[in-house]
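Case study 2.
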Amino acid sequence: MEFAGIKRIIIGEEGEYGRRLTRYLERKLPERIRLIHCTRSDYLPVPEEGGDLYILGDPFYEQILSGEKWSSLQPDLIHLTYEDSQKDLDFCRYHAPGDLLEQIRNRGRPVLQEDAGYKTVSTVILGLYSPVYEEHMREIAAHYLSDKDVFLGVEDLGEGIRQEPDMGDLCYYIHLREEKILSVLEDLLQQGEGMRYLNSPAMYFYLRELTLDDYQWFFSRLRTSGRYGQVMFGMGNGFSSDPSVFSMFDRIILIDSRNMERQHRFCERMSDFLRGEFSSFRGEVEAIFKEDLTA
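Prediction:
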């Protein structure tokens, strides 16, 4: 999940800039993240009542540096400065607020473990969704993935190339709750188009054999493995009959079309649903036009 590990952000900044920054972040951050704006340094929440990230102007920042209560906690900080700086914890207030949002996003990828000096972070899980069969699904996915990422095909209809493994093979092991499921996935993955991938099953029936609990179990293994930066599921309508499955994704990208009115209408309604009060999805959703990304 993007901004994973961040539930509360403390903004310590006086004046109009602090108010504008708070309003901007309220619009851009997921609703599950609570923002607290402090205009006086002596109102800054004590460590026991603090947040997961502090964005602080000078008086607030200096208080944390000098305060005995903070010395042993090493809170996660972003220092609002008036000049450019090469320090990771600094942000120049004259820069675009979108740059600060990206800095917050990077802070929200928590370290899960350290192994032989290497740090691993939570895997981001993406959904690339098309309401109609999309023959260019992997071509579109390539715009978002690198060679270290993984694409899993979960469309209604696969290519049916029997000499290649597909998602139907993986579904079998997911349903069994195979302890070494990630090793199984590694053995099944193919290489091509600048990414590692697994084709959709021959038919969507294989996907429907998995329960919501099965998907939650598998997503949890992916997210905490630290093996992948991003895992993208290329989805069709047959992926799952339970709309709550969307809540497991960090980001959903809808494949829209300028040339197909019904597809465009579907994507508009799907976007409204995912953002609506009755949806359990709390990630980011965007729509893209396939004509912009395919030949």
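Residues 120-292 form a domain with the Rossmann fold fold (CATH 3.40.50.300).
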